[in-house]
Amino acid sequence: MKQQGPQIEASLKYTLDELQRILSQLSNEQYGSRLPVLSDSSIGQHTRHIIEFFQELNNNYDSGVIFYDKRQRNRLLETDCVLALIELNDIKNKLSGKDKEMLLVGSYSSESADETTVKTTYYRELVYNLEHAIHHMAMIKIGVRQTTMVQVPSDFGVAAATIQHKRSL
What we know:
Layout: H1 4-23, H2 28-32, E1 34-35, E2 41-42, H3 43-59, E3 65-66, H4 81-93, E4 101-106, E5 116-121, H5 122-147, H6 160-168
Parallel strand pairs: 3-4
Antiparallel strand pairs: 1-2, 4-5
Helix pairs in contact: 1-4, 1-5, 3-4, 3-5
C-alpha cells in the first residue's frame, strides 16, 4: 500500500494543474460571465468555490477546526482569472501538511442555523476537496464547451474511479 499523503498530494496537483490549463486559456469576460447553461452562475464562481474550500482547509490547519460555511467568499476571484491562477498555485504549494485529526463544523439545514461538528482528518478533507473540485470542474467543462472554442479533455471533471472504470470496459 502506498503512503496516503504523497498519493493524495500528487492527485490534487494533477487535478489543479488541469484546471489551470483550461483557465489560462480564458479571458476575464469568458471567466466571469454568468451562463444560462450553468443556471446563471459563471466559470469564475465555480472556480472561486473550489479555491475557497482549499483556503479554508489550509488556513485552519493549525487550529484543527474547519468551517467551510464561513469561508471568505472573495468576489474578485469570480472575475479575475489571473488572480484565480495565482491562488491555485498557492494552494498547490501548501499541500504538504501531515495528517492529523480535525473537526468539521457546518450548518446542514436550510431550516435551522444549528451547527453540527464531526470528527475528520486533514487527509480526509483533502480527498473531499479533490472530489469537490472535480465536481465543479465538470460544470466548468460544460460552461467552457458551450461558450468558447477552448478544447477541454474528455476526462476533465471526471473522477479517477470513473476514468479507471471506463478503461476497464
